Amino acid sequence: MKNLIVALSLLISSLSFSQEAQEIYQRAKISYSIPEDLIRLQSLGIPVDHGIKKKGHFIISEFSVSELDLVRENGYQVEVIIPDAKAHFFAENAKGGGIRQRNADCNDPVTVYET
């Protein structure tokens, strides 16, 4: 009986941990006016070490919804560019345009290379 209770409690606890909702990530543009604002964003825990940046103006990157809420709470202007980055990336990959054939048989009649 004791083993059954332990097994059930482990099962219930593992199921509750596996059901945590994954956070949604969005591509967003955070506007700011002075370079020190970027340091302030970093001190809030916002990742600013990657992405597209225009010094003294904005940073564009993927941020979680909770990170963007924190940024808004601290007075920054946020423009969401892609509402669900994960879904966007899956859709782009599903298009299948990533692999191109480039002269697979090396018989290019246009280009003649002298040897």
Brief account:
The protein is an alpha+beta fold. It has helices spanning 2-18, 35-43, 65-73, 85-94, and strands spanning 25-31, 52-54, 58-64, 77-82.
Describe what this molecule looks like in 3D.
With 115 residues, the protein is an alpha+beta fold. The protein is built from 4 helices and 4 strands; from the N terminus they run H-E-H-E-E-H-E-H. The chain has helices at 2-18, 35-43, 65-73, 85-94, and strands at 25-31, 52-54, 58-64, 77-82. A hairpin with a 3-residue loop joins strand 2 (52-54) and strand 3. The longest helix has 17 residues, at 2-18. The termini are far apart. The model has no long low-confidence stretch (mean pLDDT 83).
Give the SSE layout.
Blueprint: H1 2-18, E1 25-31, H2 35-43, E2 52-54, E3 58-64, H3 65-73, E4 77-82, H4 85-94
Antiparallel strand pairs: 1-3, 1-4, 2-3
What portion of residues belong to β-strands?
15-25%
- Using only C-alpha atoms, the radius of gyration works out to 24 Å
The number of strands is: 4
Helix content: 25-40%
Strand order of the largest sheet: 2-3-1-4
Following the backbone from N to C, one meets helices and strands in this order, namely: HEHEEHEH
Through-space gap between termini = 84 Å
| Tally of helical runs | 4
Shape: flat
Major sheet characteristics: 4 strands, antiparallel
Mean of pLDDT: 83
**Poorly predicted segments:** none
From the helix content, strand content and strand pairing, which structural class follows? alpha+beta
Oligomer: single chain
